[in-house]
Amino acid sequence: MRHLPRLAVGTIQPEARGEPVLWGLLAALAAADDSPVLFHSSCCFAPHDPAKTILGRSARHLDSWAMSRDAAAAALARATNDRDLAIVAGAYHDPGCTSNLNTLCEWLDLARIAIVDVGCLRQRGWAMPPAHVDALLLDRVNTAEEAAYWQTTLEALWKTPVLGWLDEARALRELCTSLPAGANPSRELGEALGARLLLNLRRDKLHALARRAAPLTVDAEDFIPRGERSGQRRFRIAVAFDQAYCGYYPETLDLLEAAGAELCDFSPLKSEALPDGADVVYFGCGHPERDPEALARNHCLKQSLRCYAAVGGRIYAEGSGLAYLCREAVFDGGRTVPMTGLLPATARWLPQAGPPEPTEVVFGASSWLVPAHVSLRGYRHTGWQIEPRGPMLTYAADPAQRLDILGRGNVIGSRILVNLAANRHLLRRFFEPYAPAVS
Question: pTM of the prediction?
Fold first, then answer.
């Protein structure tokens, strides 16, 4: 059992944008040496990762739909130590999200801090007081006098203490809203927001709420196979990582390393060959659509991958990584770019696609990664349409999902983004011996 200070921070108004307050809170706590660790409340990739630039460490993920209660507790404990302050961020009422921040609060005994946009209160009037909220952070407050008014009013009517407030900070707020998806706020932006919030933040009250949580009970992670054995080299996983492919769950990589794997990165854009001695090649998600011609020009790496696959090497790619395994990718105006050809399919880019879709898939056939009849949950990447151009194996039992997970030999491509921290039972499959399957 561990006594880990922890709390949840989220919006309660559907129209409110809580990023400036959250980013400022992370920076303010970091400046005060409180060692915050950020967790998103869904395994669906967020458009920004403020922790990476503001805290110097990528955010982790929890998910009440994709994870069990025990898996969520283990993920929280694994990514923190006793000096950290864990912050789980999201929205308390988000009908578009399958994962539920309130459920995570119940599972993990999180105190709930709500971000309240007083600008919305000015425009829309009073709403019902939020249920099960322990404290408030006010956003878009014009003056100290207005802050005093809102604090007095909300504490009297909602019976909920106010811990602090952030002013309009229009110039900083415009920088927040202008960030494109996939870009992260600069450290300077976070520090500027943090300095303004820290002036009006009751850190002692916030810490008291975080320390109120009961000790966290976490089962021993004996599922980890510990891939390194005496007298043997470490199991080696080659991870594609560059500007085109950088979409990984940090906790998935953490788990693989905790199990004894040696992670060796390579660049699909620049590397001439795969790392020597790779036992598995792993492609995450990313943005190959930004410069697909650069990927196509790297003929040496594509040939290295084909040779690796031809002798039964294991390759797993998900999301946009699947597009790289296809024969070709097609973009606006019919522009066609050759890819590796490891899977006989065309990947068609859909620039107006919606957000990732929560998906549960049951495997109808066994592979080196997932045995038959096992189900897993993840988020389907909607930006690529897959069109078969030759024989492939579909692993999904449901015909409606036949293009979600495809394979040929020991090459597996999936449109579904899977977090191993949410599917820890699959971790052993990376390390278990598997008979080569040569196409």
Answer: 0.92
